[in-house]
Amino acid sequence: MSETQRTWPEAEKARYRAVGHWEGVTFGALLRHWAAGRGGRVALVDGDRRWTYAQLDAEADLIARGLFGLGIKRGDRVVIQLPNRAEFVLLWFALQRLGAVPVHAMPGHRRREIGHLVRAAEAVACVVPDRHARFDHRELMREVRAEQGPDDSLRHVVVVGDPGPGKDFVSFEALRTAPPTASGHGLDDGGAAPSDIALLLLSGGTTGLPKLIPRTHDDYAYNARACADVCALDARTVYLAVLPIGFNFTFACPGVLGTLMAGGTVVVAPDPSPQTAFALVDQEGVTLTSLTPPLVPHWMDEAASGSWDLGSLAVVQVGGARLPEDHARKLGPALGATVQQVFGMAEGLINLTRLDDPEDLVCATQGRPASPDDEVLVVDTDGRPVPDGTAGELLTRGPYTLRGYYRAEEYNRTAFTPHGHYRTGDVVRRLPTGHLVVVGRIKDQINRGGEKVAAVEVEEELLTHPAITAAALVGVPDERWGERSVAFLVCEGSAPGAREVAAHLKERGLAGHKAPDEVVQVPALPLTVVGKVDKAALTQRLP
């Protein structure tokens, strides 16, 4: 199965080009254009290191020359597993200069995930840090290499930092200082076309190995640009990358790419703590940042200390999971900023509340599509559209939503409708305004004796209990009910018991069968590598 077989129909491609969604420019050419028009403006900040647009362009050329010397060329896949460092951005554009394809891994991935990505993408190289968060990624790559067969694709491991003794790994710094080759350095995008795959993102979820999501230059540039337009980004925008930089939300919603397209400045935060982030907001005049819901209480608590000047911060996006309405109403006043909810997927469709939406829409919905050509259907279990206000599965297609996963034809047969709509697995309600309210996931439901319990609904109501600061509801097998529900709670002091929780939920208007059968207090909820609650890890804690 060729990775280019499943794509948009020719008529839709022509329409997206005609209306200006697809501009027919590669990312390598975009960077060259930005450097020519705003070369002296600061594009990227990482600690005390700064790059103007001209310097970012020149650095991409240097690194591309070194990669070309390793034999990396158009179409080659390269796994990038880097924490929040400027090198991620520098390397990403260097690969675009060659027409090569970055594969966005997360810093928390380990041997199983990285090995899977290398095999699934047939990657020729991996780029890793020497150490991050007290973990040695060089040892990880030795393990991955040890599992490779003689016909496997991985040829090079590039290390940002100390590559260690011997010649097993290539130093990132050595790429930068590589001499020009006799045949030139293969720049000008390596002959890449705007319709080529520009990068491979990873599917979400908390179980199983991720699938690869192909994004083209045309569609991904529009993804970032459409989100930047909704967020009114301009040359004064200073975006703080707090979440993992390879996460689609951080990179292009509008994130890093959207900010650069608008002529703004990207500031890289080395960790997501509010102390680190608030210091950068004060120091760099940050105007926009993105969070996941688990970070929100910590940011509000730190802001209440009154130790920071957050006056420049205008917009705080929250996405990756549904933001409880109570938190949404408190976050804006706590930070002195406008809250924007973002609900989307690496596969494509991005929904955002608008900056001028009424408070009720901002706090109680997860936004509406970024593009006028995003097609949204909400359907019942038989695939029939349901009226506005009725919960159903979200189906979508459009100018930046994939038409097929990478080299996954068998899975694609069920993941897409015959008309090309992507089956998201999200259960939503659509309002007459077009805003979506996320009810849950089809698979994030607990079937308790035939009664369906949407976990997200119960979790949000649990957070209204004064003692509960975080909550996750999971289903576990049960002989009597088929499944029973367990609420994992993070609390101030002792957790309320199951009876107290049930009484509280009843008072909030929930049906009795939605009350958890069991309550377990935990010090914190485990998170996946992209900051979502890891429910698989929680269920493993049960006997």
UniProtKB/TrEMBL annotation:
Stretches assigned to the AMP-binding enzyme C-terminal domain: 457-532
Signal peptide from the UniProt entry: none
Disordered, as annotated region: 366-393
Gene3D superfamilies: 3.30.300.30, 3.40.50.980, Luciferase, Domain 3
A Pfam cross-reference name: AMP-binding
AMP-dependent synthetase/ligase domain residues: 31-406
Family annotation (InterPro entries): AMP-bd_C, AMP-bd_C_sf, AMP-binding_CS, AMP-dep_synth/lig_dom, ATP-dep_AMP-bd_enzyme
Protein name: (2,3-dihydroxybenzoyl)adenylate synthase
Organism placement in taxonomy: Bacteria, Bacillati, Actinomycetota, Actinomycetes, Kitasatosporales
